Amino acid sequence: MKVRAYGKLNLSLTITGRRGGLHTLDGVMHSVGICDELTVTENDVIGVTVNGADIPEEKNTAFAAAALVRERFGLVLRAEIVKRIPVGGGMGGSSADAAGVLAAAARMLGDRALPGLLTIAAEIGSDVPFMLRGGCARVRGTGNELTALPFVPFTALVADCGAVSTPQCYGLYDTLPEENAPDPEDAVADVMQGRFPRTPYNALGRPAAVLNPLVGECVRAADEAGYTAVVTGSGGCVYVPDASVGAERVFEKLGVPYFRVDSVRAGTDVTV
User: Fold this and answer.
1) Which residues participate in catalysis according to the annotation?
2) Over the stretch 127-161, which tens digit does the pLDDT of each residue have?
3) Are 104 and 2 in contact (CB under 8 A)?
4) Alpha carbon of 265 to those of 59, 151, 154, 210: distances in Å?
5) Residue 197 needs a FRET pair 20 to 30 A away by CA distance; which of 30, 51, 110, 212 works?
6) What Cα–Cα distance (Å) separates residue 139 from each residue in 37, 44, 102, 235, 260?
7) How far apart are CA 166 and CA 184, in angstroms?
């Protein structure tokens, strides 16, 4: 079974507090057309192989997903993954791989298994429930509260500044002084009208720039050139939502690799 597991961009991300040791958030996520490709098969033992990144099996969320699928449903899966979503880039690559395994399991097990698979998604990580469903959604709580929003057509230019550790990014966020943040409802209102948020915001942008200074350099250079630059997720990747040619020159001057992505309507795409 073949699965395309798509990445995401955060159109907005506000940290609202903590619950059970986890940060709670309120933001808008949108699936985009860069994807990891998975080949998922039934097997005698669980296994995950990753091509394109060095990720130990025991730390791979796809392996965690497969382990819980075996525990809850008795289905034993093996996944071979071709990585294309930047690792540590804040585009949900690790969560996408877990979602890809769960999407394959859903196809094999049928609709009856979907509630249980969604429960597994929420247990694995805050981005996984969205990555499984995809499209555009308001994401609240610890990532498990999803409200579908209209598809927003856009093409973004994404600069890959290198990996940022998600736990370190959240940990550093807790030590920084609060900043004035736009009301999350503003971004939702714009998306409800089918347009990209006029005031995109990411609360994790500051800690990501501290942990990876190139993130901050990309944001500053793009802003100085007159472009809106947004950090996605816990960082590593910075994007300009209008995919301007001028923004390409900004990233080229900094020597940062970049690529274009279009918004897409699904988080996963399964073919037999």
Assistant:
1) 8, 127
2) 999 999 999 999 999 999 999 999 999 999 999 99
3) no
4) 29, 7, 12, 33
5) 212
6) 25, 36, 19, 18, 24
7) 22
Q: At what angle do helices 213-224 and 245-254 cross, to 10 degrees?
A: 140
pLDDT average, residue stretch 221-231? 96
Write a three-state SS string for 79-136.
EEEECCCCCCCCCCHHHHHHHHHHHHHHHHHCHHHHHHHHHHHHHHCCCHHHHHHCCE
CB 63 within 8 A of CB 55: no
Q: What is the DSSP string of 180-229?
A: ----HHHHHHHHHTTS--SS-EETTHHHHHHHSHHHHHHHHHHHHTT---
Residue carrying the six token digits 């274009």: 260
Token digits for 221? Answer: 């250079």
> The sheet that has 237-240: what strands, in order across it?
230-231, 237-240, 155-160, 258-262
Q: Which residue's structure tokens are 């997720």?
A: 233
